[in-house]
Specification:
The chain contains 25 helices and twelve strands. By secondary structure, it is of the alpha/beta class. It starts with 8 loop residues before the first helix and ends with a helix.
């Protein structure tokens, strides 16, 4: 292959995609921010390096490709913004975007004007470019750091929403700078407001339309739902831009928010599709845009450019957060951490490249230097946040505690009954199920419900499996339950495991569970389907019993229900150290242990007699799934 072959646009895009995926895979294993390796890959393989990737060969198509990719990325970011989380931090988010953004623009402009002696026009343009953070950097960082939800919500929302606002502000600022007419600032301010308003309204309407279309399965043929929505989003982006320039970013962001908050659980496949597509596009874009920046221009900026970046990090970002979070619900630790974390992402890079092209087209100087400085800001802030974020979060006590709550695979009626026990005990319960009806029914019993395949890593990450007290497999399929615990072990080695098993078989035995480090939940095999039907028919009672005899007999080392003649009694949970935990077949009884039993209604009296004779005292009886306390009949009759 000769060198000229690499000037082929198709080869450039293909190599950028491949290198983007390789760099992100390597970053995952090295536990470093992916963008660091993406930028390095772009520079190393671009015209200043091996010359394999030639962004110039794409011509005007580079801007089109960048725009479409940014649209998909921000659509994904919008889907992940949930109103219930935004509502709790709405003051901080609103002020960070409006007041904090204004402080950032002004501070960055003053810094670059004084330190690098740029003209005010270019200085202000630089300020509008660096006012954005970005979900492409923030979200992976927050997943790795595991900070508290209050902080994560603010940073995630700021990253998505300020990208939409910042892109419009930057574009209007560029139009003002290039305009030959002396126009009032109020006119340009109206341009910002009108474009954001139009994008928000059009995106909201299209988002609701897509939501309704997706709910009626007769309208969109099965198998093309994902690409249908993707095509609609790209059409929305380009159509909105055609009517009002750069309003498309706000439109796709709002469409994502609407779909993410009001759609049905059946959008799981769309979520999977756009996540994978976003990873591909982020990698491709950063490689292409980094390759398009001349390394000599970055080096030519000299130490003054480093000084500008330091001022942005040490003075401007803290000032913006201080103003943006004043009189908010955040404490000083949360505010300090938000000020510490301010990496720039793909939108800043994309708009900076657009600025450079616009300057060149108009024959104006400074466009390439402007882009080079923005890329320096991106590189330094990403590396800084990635290397120091975890340490700062730990010192401030903002990392989420480990050993917190439970993850349940399955949201069938039996799983919901167990989840309710834990939830009523004040513990967090995350239920994962691929059955939409089960998920809807579990919304009141589980703290969180995730519609998806629990055998896939992305859903375990959403359930925050790495910080949980344990994971419970409660589906009616023994093989799926076993695969689930294997998948959990791949993601984290420290989470205890419990598995429901109908009965030992040639393919799966209790011994295999123990070899895998799991326990048999309920202490004995259970027919999940049968108990699911009983719960749905409201034929299950919950009883709390306390062990009153000293468990020294051999019988106390076998399952709690061993010797019971029926199949309508299971030991669900045990209270120790003021907290409920699942009952497993390796559990050993202690005197005064409290155990919650599920009892099939026709066997209530028989089960009570069995437990009393085995050395138990009934403490509480709840009738027919209602979880309304009453007195155990047999004990009260004796009293």
């Amino acid at each position: 292959m000769i060198a000229s072959d690499f000037h082929n646009p198709g080869m450039t895009v293909a190599l950028a995609m491949a290198l983007g995926m390789i760099a992100q895979s390597l970053a995952h294993h090295l536990r470093v921010p992916g963008i660091v390796l993406l930028l390095a890959a772009g520079v190393a393989t671009g015209p200043d390096g091996l010359g394999l990737i030639q962004p110039a060969s794409l011509g005007p198509a580079l801007n089109i490709l960048t725009g479409f990719a940014v649209a998909v990325i921000l659509f994904e970011g919008g889907i992940n913004l949930k109103f219930r989380r935004l509502k709790r931090a709405r003051r901080s988010i609103r002020q960070l975007i409006l007041l904090g953004g204004l402080v950032t623009v002004a501070g960055a402009a003053i810094a670059v004007h004084l330190i690098m002696e740029w003209p005010w026009q270019n200085s202000i343009l630089f300020g509008t470019l660096v006012m954005v953070t970005g979900p492409t950097v923030i979200n992976p960082l927050l997943k790795r750091l595991k900070v508290k939800r209050s902080v994560a919500t603010v940073l995630e929302a700021e990253g998505v929403l300020i990208d939409a606002v910042g892109a419009v502000v930057a574009t209007v600022a560029l139009e003002a700078a290039l305009s030959p007419f002396n126009v009032s600032p109020l006119v340009w301010a109206w341009h910002v407001v009108s474009r954001l308003g139009f994008g928000t309204i059009s995106g909201g309407l299209i988002g609701m339309l897509l939501m309704l279309l997706h709910r009626d399965r007769r309208l969109i043929p099965e198998g093309i739902e994902n690409v249908f929505i993707l095509a609609a989003i790209l059409a929305l982006f380009q159509g909105s831009n055609m009517i009002l320039a750069e309003s498309g970013i706000a439109a796709v962001t709002m469409a994502g928010i609407i779909i993410g908050n009001f759609s049905s659980y059946a959008l799981r496949d769309l979520v999977e599709f756009k996540e994978e597509l976003t990873v591909l596009l982020i990698g491709m874009l950063f490689v292409l845009l980094a390759a398009d920046v001349r390394l000599a221009r970055v080096i030519g900026l000299g130490w003054p450019a480093v000084g500008v970046v330091l001022v942005l990090m040490v003075l401007v970002r803290p000032a913006a957060v201080l103003v943006g979070t004043s009189f908010s619900e955040l404490g000083w630790k949360e505010r300090f951490f938000i000020a510490w974390i301010g990496p720039r992402g793909i939108v800043a890079a994309a708009v900076a490249s657009f600025f450079a092209a616009a300057f060149t087209e108009k024959g104006l100087p400074g466009g390439y230097e402007l882009r080079a400085l923005v890329f320096l800001v991106i590189a330094v802030t990403v590396v800084f946040a990635g290397l120091t974020g975890g340490l700062v979060a730990g010192v401030l006590g903002l990392r989420r505690p480990s050993q917190m709550g439970w993850v349940l695979l399955g949201a069938n009626a039996l799983a919901r009954g167990l989840a309710k026990l834990f939830k009523d005990d004040g513990q967090e319960v995350v239920c994962i199920d691929s059955n939409a009806d089960h998920c809807k029914a579990a919304e009141n019993d589980c703290t969180r419900v995730i519609y998806g395949n629990g055998l896939q890593a992305r859903y375990l990450l959403r359930a925050e499996i790495d910080i949980r007290r344990g994971a419970l497999a409660l589906t009616a399929n023994d093989e799926v339950n076993y695969l689930f615990i294997q998948k959990v072990k791949e993601e984290t080695k420290r989470v205890p495991l419990w598995v429901a098993l109908k009965s030992d078989s040639a393919s799966l035995t209790t011994k295999m569970l123990h070899t895998s480090g799991a326990e048999l939940i309920f202490g004995a095999p259970v027919d999940v389907d049968a108990w699911d039907r009983r719960f749905k028919a409201k034929q299950v009672h919950m009883q709390k019993w306390q062990r009153i005899s000293d468990p020294h007999r051999e019988a106390d080392k076998v399952p709690l229900t061993a010797g019971y003649p029926g199949n309508g009694l299971i030991a669900a949970a045990v209270r120790r150290n003021d907290s409920l935990s699942p009952v497993g077949d390796n559990m050993r009884l202690k005197k005064e242990d409290e155990v919650c039993f599920f009892v099939f209604e026709p066997e209530v009296d028989a089960a009570a007699e069995f437990l009393r004779q085995a050395g138990w005292r009934c403490m509480e009886h709840v009738d027919k799934n209602d979880f309304t306390t009453s007195i155990c009949r047999l004990d009260s009759e004796e009293g």
